[in-house]
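Table 4 source record.
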Amino acid sequence: MSMMNWSMVGAGLGGILASAALWYCCRVLLRRRASIQDKVVLITGASSGLGEACAKVFHQHGCQVILAGRNVERLNAVKQALVSLETKAKCLHVPAVMKMDLEDVSALQQLAQQAVGLFGKVDIVINNAGISYRGCIEDTSVQVDQKLMTVNYFGHIALIKGLLPSMVSQNSGHIVGISSVQGKMSIPYRSAYSASKHALQAFFDCLRAELADTNIQVSMISPGYIRTNLSTNAVRGDGSAYGLMDKTTESGMTPEAVAERVLQCVLRGQPDVVISPLHHRLAIILRAVAPSLFFAIMARRARKQRTDYKKAE
């Protein structure tokens, strides 16, 4: 092919990309921000961390929040903290508390129906609850892999399937998944966690496509490190508690900052949001466009960290 023909191809592709970029920018600018006043919002893992921060920000915006989690005592403490905010804003609802264990998958269908029954509907569900993991694959029992998949994947999809009939019936709703940057690219010694988040990402991609002709929106949010107890509460390969605060977690984003981005995602109807530093975003791109280089970098990282994780076992 001649140089002139290559130039014509390049110019054509450039024009297509420029048009696509212009269309996307116009769509973002013209997108109407949704109103969430009085919407019923079910938040899993609402007893601490990002779930608690999301409960606060949605409560402050006038939503009827359902706090779901395993620790009812802690959920009630969060409820009381939210109720105390009523003097600072108008039209705030008293939150509801619901005990919910995502590991008990068989109970989630009924719990979903109970959640709908509290206020007659669930407009928004934020699938936030989860568990993390640290360990070498060769030293990790299959039972740990199963636990991570149950809590981080099967539990969420069981809850979603329990809520879907109500949303389909009312032809409205918003399903939000809290994944991780590690759901878009894996890093060493996080195999069980990354696998569960990859599975959730794939499920949400299918769900979004299948619900495209309805008024039910589907959003996946992939944060980087958040300053919560996720690493402290993580499990090791033998199922024991990790019990340590990673330096990356300790220096991560605040739950409040991420919760605000979750709120903006819902208001704007964004389908896929990555909340992380630039180098995380570049790594995701590198995994797609130059996988061999990405694999080499991860192999180097694995060799560097292997001694630490073998000692931890």
